[in-house]
Design brief:
alpha/beta, five-stranded parallel β-sheet, about 35% helix, Rossmann fold, about 210 residues, Ybab, Chain: A, about 20% strand, 2 domains, single chain, 7 helices
């Protein structure tokens, strides 16, 4: 099975999430950048607000691919003590400052002058275009909880069985229709998996 594109994937997820249709407490959040077009379709079909969630993983100075935490809107910071304890306060501060600058740039690009993201007591539906390792999704879940989300739903069209299993206990609900045992890469399950541009995300309707 393969999706035609991210819009097609969004249609499939919207069907799986039909039980959330029209609920006043639901916000659908696209993880940048690939999750945004998927999320926009879901929000439109469910008749609920759509927005983007800008997060930045905090990587170890000597190995940026290893995250010791994540930051999100409103100064939210989540640390993974098992990794962060290997660093001193200055190292954590330097990485956090650099990633905060990039987060603010992206917030300005993708959220513009809209008010700060408000999730207090809401059901946050986090959407990505696929789950490979699940690291970005895990960071997004942690940030959403810190922003006050009362319930967190994670939705992705395709994911590795390992990532789905690892994330299951971190969220209140997970929706991932396609979990192939021979998973190799997210793009393998799309006919069109072009790199989503900043302009494409900025053009998506919000609200």
């Amino acid at each position: 099975m393969a999706y035609r594109d991210r819009s097609d994937a969004g249609e499939e997820l919207a069907r799986e999430l039909a039980h959330l249709s029209g609920r006043p407490d639901v916000t659908v959040l696209g993880l940048l950048r690939g999750g945004a077009p998927v999320a926009a379709v879901i929000a439109q079909r469910l008749g609920v607000p759509y927005d983007v969630l800008v997060i930045r993983k905090l990587g170890m100075p000597s190995a940026p691919e290893i995250a010791f935490g994540a930051i999100g809107p409103g100064g939210v910071r989540v640390l993974n003590p098992e990794v962060a304890d290997r660093l001193d306060a200055d190292q954590i501060a330097q990485v956090t400052a650099a990633e905060t600058a990039e987060l603010r740039r992206r917030e300005g690009t993708f959220r513009g002058v809209r008010p700060p993201l408000e999730l207090s007591g809401r059901t946050a539906v986090l959407v990505d275009d696929g789950l490979a390792t699940g690291a970005t999704a895990r960071a997004a879940v942690a940030v959403s909880r810190k922003l006050g989300a009362g319930r967190v739903v994670l939705a992705a069209p395709v994911g590795s069985p390992e990532a789905v299993a690892a994330l299951r206990n971190a969220v209140d609900e997970i929706v991932c229709p396609l979990r192939p045992d021979d998973f190799r890469a997210v793009g393998q399950y799309y006919l069109d998996f072009h790199q989503v541009s900043d302009d494409e995300v900025a053009a998506l309707p919000v609200g």
